[in-house]
Amino acid sequence: MIMHDYNAAASKAAILIHPMLSSAEGARECLPELWSEDARWLLPDLSAHGDAVAGTYRSASDEAKAIHDYLIEHGAHIYSWASAHPWRCCAVRASEI
Questions:
Q1: 24, 4 in Cβ contact below 8 A?
Q2: φ and ψ of 45, to 5 deg
Q3: CA-CA-CA-CA torsion sign (76, 16, 2, 82)
Q4: Helix or strand or coil: residue 64?
Q5: Of 9, 59, 69, 71, whose CB count within 10 A is highest?
Q6: Helix, strand, or coil here: 93?
Q7: pLDDT tens digits for the chain (97 residues)?
Q8: CA 8 to chain centre
Q9: How many domains does the chain have?
């Protein structure tokens, strides 16, 4: 998984995950009306897609964990209700990433 991070200094944040057979760039091109300078956009290229084409896709759970780990490593505070697998059920406070 490769995370594309646009407008990192913005106070609001959103993550947009592309569907299978697409990429972060494909998602970005499909939704141009969303892009603004007052929002931070996180667009992951899932394994075997887009800029992460060399990676091996194993499961949606592995991809979710990679996204979760990226958010944690970059200062997000995760509110979790699934203690055994926090990447399966969580909410992120956007002001904290």
A1: yes
A2: -95, 115
A3: positive
A4: helix
A5: 71
A6: coil
A7: 889 888 888 877 888 877 777 778 877 777 666 667 778 888 888 888 888 888 888 888 888 899 889 888 887 766 554 555 554 544 455 445 5
A8: 13
A9: 1
